[in-house]
Amino acid sequence: xxxxxxxxxxxxxGRAQVGAARQRAGHWSLDVPRAVAGVRLGNWAVTxxxxxxxxxxxxxxxxxxxxxxxxxxxxxxxxxxxxxxxxLMRFLxxxxxxxxxxxxxxxxxxxxxxDGVRRTEQPPWFMAWLVGxxxxxxxxxxxxxxxxxxSQEGTLWPDxxxxxxxxxxxxxxxxxxxxxxxxxxxxQLEARWRDAPWPLLPAAAGRIWWExxxxxxxxxxxxxxxxxIAAPASIVGCALLxxxxxxxxxxxxxxxxxxxxxxxxGFPEGxxxxxxxxxxxxxxxxxxxAGTVRVRPAGLRLEAGVKLAAxxxxxxxxxxxxxxxx
Length: 326
Fold this sequence. Notes:
Elements: E1 21-24, E2 27-30, E3 35-41, E4 44-50, E5 74-79, E6 96-103, E7 107-113, E8 116-122, E9 125-136, E10 139-151, H1 160-164, H2 170-174, E11 179-194, E12 205-214, E13 216-220, E14 226-230, E15 233-241, E16 245-253, E17 272-273, E18 276-277, E19 286-295, E20 304-314, E21 322-325
Antiparallel strand pairs: 1-2, 3-4, 4-5, 5-6, 6-9, 7-8, 9-10, 10-11, 11-12, 12-15, 13-14, 15-16, 16-19, 17-18, 19-20, 20-21
């Protein structure tokens, strides 16, 4: 029995659905997996439509946005050439910049009001940015921020800057306003190489990666002016490649003692679109270790591979208890 099929598992901890269409309450729903149009404008590429999206270096998933869920309509702008800045600023010029925004499925939104909790039904907006630097020819570093946001007043325009570039403590202050947000911030590091020196392991090429993220910022340091990632999660992995065989492994940690990842008090449905989790399919209380081996025999146009994974889910005090899958 699949432990994640237990009744009571919310979207934030449940498995990602598979398939392009699913039956819900006796009615069929149709998903649009890919329909995109784009245009090149100088050093920018702009696209609009539905498409699977992943933002992160991991092989098994990403913390902020992953392609395992349902696609949603979005407008995306991406820089296609590095920025060229002069003077001392040239060392800070990003090599990558991505901006994305699009509406998510309609859902219940909760916020605080003078007379209690205010409930509305509306589609929140997904907004994200990513900025990246090529530290060396073989190492890249990037930072990304993703938010689903809704306003009980019906418009997000006055708060766009605060939503996408929050100062320390912004989320705490928003609890007393009509703005509802669910933010995830992540740092990503990836290094690639060729012709490694070790004699036994695959050495032709390889890469290592680390994605470190949190559900918000906490005030830290003197005067509370230093941002500290709250409820951290990590994805770390390594892949070694050879013409005849490959090895890869990845460890994912989304478990936290007090915070359920991808859950949010303002959005009971969680970090999702149309009931599908938007990010890592492991869910909000999982921990997993996965390994992959691929072999390509000489003289044959054939590749054989095996992937083994072990995952556990646990949240202290939660009614769904503990699950395990191998």
